[in-house]
Amino acid sequence: MYIIGENIHIISPRVKDALRDKNARFFQEMAVTQVEAGAQALDLNLGPRKQDWEEVFPWIVETVEAVVDVPICLDSTNILGIEAGLKKISKAQPIINSTSAEEERLEKVPPLAKQYNARLIALTMGKEGIPVSADERVMIVLEKLIPRALEVGLPVQDLIIDPLALTVSGCQEYCPELIEAVRTIQFAWDPPPAISVGLSNVSKVSHTIRMDQRSLINRVYGVMLMGAGLQMMIADPFDNELKKAIRIVEERDDSTALGRLYLALHDRVANMEELTAAEVEMDDPEQVAVWKTVQILLNKVIFAESYLEQEVVV
After folding, report:
1. Per-residue pLDDT at 176
2. For FRET with 73, which of 87, 93, 129, 194 sits at 20 to 30 Å CA-CA?
């Protein structure tokens, strides 16, 4: 699993303060520790930076590249800011995050990726928003995203399709559809584009949800998406339980009961099937928590923050 580290994000008060103060040490430590934890690229989400983009984007690229060699993923709606950052890239092939199928973004961002030899994350989102169904998301890839990349001379291998993970709270019906979108997009072109999702989006529920519960939702969804063929994600490299689940799947480690359940879940999704209650040891709280989480992610049980406390549905 190729993990793009998500932890330099403007939504974090610490990141916001460090950016305001031009605290290079903060960003360098965050970059190094994410790479040491397993991140193979780093997402730098700086927000739109409407006032100071000319200064901030080049500064953050130079600051981070001074201490790590992994690809930088410039994450912003500010196209001029992204370009200012791209001009300072001196190491690995960068990533632009992102374009969508909206006309203005699709017109301006893919040529930028081509000009600066960047990979491009492309969202399955048009002017009408994000479609629920997998088929509609795949059609955006086939009719809008790939044709535009080819039109500007961007190799499909440099295109990273993001079919968009959305929160299980309020967008629950999207969750199973994403699994099928990931499965189908792999066959959308030859050679196929890469596929990535912002995994943590699925557990962005409220400020009151516990971090261990967010981690549970993230890793169970991650295993399911791996079953559909996902090989890249923007995620938290400090989440050891997520990395453990990924390792179990990749190494086919069936030495523990929980590991065997993760593998069963992965394999069921891979075979376009659903995990059954018979595969879960219902006297094991860890396995029950995974089962309950699968049910909300498949939209079988209505999500509530207290879903783990509810009766088991079989």
Report:
1. 98
2. 129
Assigned domain for 49 exists = yes
Report the relative pairing of strands 41-45 and 232-235 from DSSP bridges: unpaired
Farthest-apart Cα atoms in the chain, separation: 58
Sheet holding 197-198, edge to edge: 194-195, 159-162, 119-123, 95-99, 72-75, 41-45, 2-9, 232-235, 197-198
**pLDDT confidence bin for 248, thresholds 50/70/90:** very high
Tokens describing residue 116: 């600066």
**Average pLDDT score over the chain:** 96
**Number of domains making up the chain:** 1
Q: Which of the four pLDDT bands, split at 50, 70 and 90, describes residue 50?
A: confident
Backbone angles phi, psi at 190, to 5 degrees: -135, 110
Residue 78 lies in a domain: yes
